[in-house]
Amino acid sequence: MKKKTLAMLLSAALCVSLFAGCSGGTASTPAPETAPAAAETTPAEEEPAELTGTVNTDGSTSMADVMAAFQETFDDIQPGVTVNYSGTGSGSGITNVLAGTVDIGLSSRALTDEEKAEGAVENIVALDGVAVVVNPENTVTDLTIEDIAKIYTGEITNWSELGGADAPIAVIGRDAASGTRGAFEEIVGVEDACVYTNEYESTGEVIGSVAGNPNAIGYASLSAVDDTVVAVQVNGVAPSEATVADGTYEIQRPFVMVTVEGTELSEAAQAFLEWAMSADAADEVEAAGCVSPNA
150 with 93, same domain? Predict the structure, then answer.
């Protein structure tokens, strides 16, 4: 009987001991697991909304290279948009956009006060030098603004008066609707006073005429000058992208996309205009031999 009672007491003591060991006195609650911190994410660049449609532009032939570069790149950005370009001259481009027959007019000169009064809005996409070009055989390589003015008004008629050969000067220029002609005559100070031997409707024709005549002089967009002609220095400064940008080359003008005040463009045309005027289009402007005002 004593043995049985002792066994029961030992068994009870063991249970108490085990209970105390399991409870560990003060029970600790495991800390809840914390979710790993979310990795920081950088928002992806927003892709431009995909557009469809056609943008019709018309005007300056001097802007042909810039427009070609714009068309190619914008086609990559918005493949659903077709940008058409027709080179009919600055005057025609301004007239047509005001008449509503095209989305955007193109002018290679600043707009006049009269055109602005009609509602034309000037959007400058590039700056371009107007190069004064002669035939590679000509030994005259530097002219002053005054020299050029006298040549174009007929006061100087022979190259010998400027240190060149004894030969009559063939004065080549653009037609009256040309933005290049308007800019050139205004800057040189010979508006409505020029005496032209021949007038042409495009930049290419002027270059070709001067290239084919040792006695010719003409003017053309700097971006259009090739090795068939020579661009002379003006007041000692050669025309280049750098001298146009810093203003030391005096005969320069803007390339303008013309819109109409109060007229809403289509989404496609608005997107094209905004892109052309942005820093994103600077490479295309420079590839065309011009200077971007928006770089």
Answer: no
